[in-house]
Amino acid sequence: MRSGDSVYTLVWDPQAGQPLLRTLDPAFFFPEWDDEVDAAEFPARVHLAWELPEDPRTGRKARLRRVTYELGSIGAATRPRTYPWAPGKPSQVTCCLTDLEWLLEVSVLCRAKPWWATMQPVAT
């Protein structure tokens, strides 16, 4: 998605027994394009990021949430995996997911640093 205006995600819904299609605002989608990857290919790493507003009722502060999907090798020491969509094709590739949140606070004591230098991951 280099110049599109929407992002689609397709996930398997085990309860419904069918795929689920969702659309995302492209402003939340941050692919990491490798210079050697063809524009028609999907990047090996993508980030979805959005702001979670402050909730005074629960006391939760404003946060930035980032979910990262990254394709990577499972390593030679691990047996290849077989996925339901390719039953006869073992694969050495898997998709890793990272889900992090950071508080959106700027410390008064750290004004000499850029604002992102004070971002702290929070437990979810």
Radius of gyration: 19 Å
The major pleated sheet works out as: 5 strands, antiparallel
Number of helices: 0
Unreliably modeled segments: 111-118
> SSE string, helix = H, strand = E?
EEEEEEEEE
What is the subunit organization of this protein?
single chain
Helix-strand category: mainly beta
What is the residue-averaged pLDDT?
A: 78
Please give the share of residues in helix: under 10%
Question: In whole angstroms, how far apart are the ends?
Answer: 30 Å
Estimated share of beta-strand residues: over 45%
| Annotation, overall tally of beta strands | 9
Large-scale geometry = extended
Strand order of the largest sheet: 3-4-5-8-9
Q: What is the compact description of this entry?
A:
This protein is an all-beta fold and 124 residues long.
3D architecture notes:
- The chain has a domain at 39-122.
- Strand 6 and strand 7 (86-91) form a beta hairpin.
- It has 124 residues and is mainly beta.
- It has strands at residues 7-13, 18-24, 29-32, 45-52, 63-73, 81-83, 86-91, 93-103, 121-122.
- The strands form three sheets. A five-stranded antiparallel β-sheet has the order 3-4-5-8-9, with no helix packed on it.
